[in-house]
Design goal:
Blueprint: H1 2-10, E1 29-40, E2 43-54, E3 58-63, H2 69-76, E4 84-89, E5 92-93, H3 99-104, E6 107-110, H4 122-126, H5 143-156, H6 173-186, E7 191-195, H7 203-219, E8 223-227, H8 231-237, E9 240-245, E10 248-254, H9 260-276
Parallel strand pairs: 3-8, 3-9, 6-7, 7-8
Antiparallel strand pairs: 1-2, 1-4, 4-5, 9-10
Helix pairs in contact: 6-7
Bound molecules: adenosine-5'-triphosphate and magnesium ion (MG).
Length: about 280
């Protein structure tokens, strides 16, 4: 395949990862990053990454440890600011100043450590920092309404738990991840960023999250970027994949047009080239 062969050669040019060839040029984009660079002192974590995310699209980001995947997500979620490069949210040039700023634009992130309060109930977690309070002078929490709304929201997206009163610590890893995704979706996310949502999960638990992501996709209105490790799972879920190596995008393709074998070949070739070049 031409593209895979030329991809590594293009990687250093800073113009890699052009918008996907199979999307219509005027298709609406939820997000676009142009030549994003992030330096931490002497470390260049992102070295000119360009990416696009179409509305309703699921983009899978693959790559080795230290490739810059989490750094990219942290820029897209307003946690870090890029050293250089431009970000467009819904077509508007935007500098994301903070996580709250990104959130106000409908960008939500589910981090790997989840940030759920384990001793609190499912429904309370769903409304963490957004609690509903009753009217009146005492501003008491409206548990009844939060319970009902949480149950409704989980029901809407097909997440089944025995009771929304259960503390989160009683749930499995997969169920917890599902609650974290549900919470993000419930807060009207338009763009959902997931950093290794299936890490450390067994097949059954991973299946739960995969099904949830597929249902969210079918419902429409949500664009997703997910960092993944497993190539086969990524190709199953994502519409498109992007491979990152050493702070750059070295390959990008529609999932239907690539394969696990091809991705492994690209990674191996890069690895051999790096060793031959004596890098690191
Ligand atoms: N806050 C930071 N300060 C300094 N260096 C950092 C910081 N965050 C990330 N880095 C460095 O940037 C590079 C990319 O890290 P990043 O966490 O984005 O990789 P990753 O692709 O998510 O890796 P993994 O698969 O292990 O999660 C690494 O060399 C890392 O050490
Ligand atoms: Mg990471």
């Amino acid at each position: 395949m031409d593209e895979s062969q030329s991809s590594s050669a293009n990687a250093g040019a800073g113009t890699n990862a052009a918008p996907s060839a199979t999307r219509a040029p005027d298709a609406p984009l939820a997000l676009r990053g142009e030549n994003l660079v992030k330096r931490f002192g002497a470390v260049t974590a992102l070295d000119g990454v360009s990416l696009t995310l179409g509305k309703g699209e699921i983009l899978g980001v693959l790559g080795d440890n230290g490739a810059g995947k989490s750094t990219l997500v942290k820029i897209l979620t307003g946690f870090h600011q890029q050293t250089d490069g431009t970000l467009y949210v819904d077509g508007e040039e935007t500098l994301l100043r903070s996580v709250d700023h990104a959130r106000s634009l409908g960008i939500e992130c589910v981090y790997q450590d989840l940030a759920l309060a384990n001793s609190l109930s499912i429904y309370h977690n769903m409304f963490l920092n957004r609690e509903i309070v009753r009217r009146g002078p005492f501003r008491l929490l409206d548990h009844k309404q939060m319970r009902e709304r949480a149950a409704q929201c989980l029901d809407d997206i097909g997440v089944h738990v025995p009771s929304v009163d259960l503390p989160v610590e009683r749930l499995s890893g997969g169920q917890r991840q599902a609650i974290a995704v549900a919470r993000a979706v419930h807060s009207n996310a338009k763009i959902l960023l997931l950093d290794e949502p299936l890490a450390a999960m067994g097949a059954r638990e991973a299946g739960l999250i995969i099904d949830l992501l597929m249902r969210l996709k079918e419902k429409g209105g949500l664009s997703i970027i997910m960092i993944m490790h497993n190539y086969a799972q990524t190709l199953d879920i994502a519409d498109r994949i992007m491979l990152m190596q050493r702070g750059r995008v070295t390959y990008e393709q529609q999932s239907a047009l690539t394969s696990v074998a091809e991705l492994m070949q690209i990674v191996q070739r890069e690895y051999r080239a790096m060793r031959a070049g004596g890098a690191h």
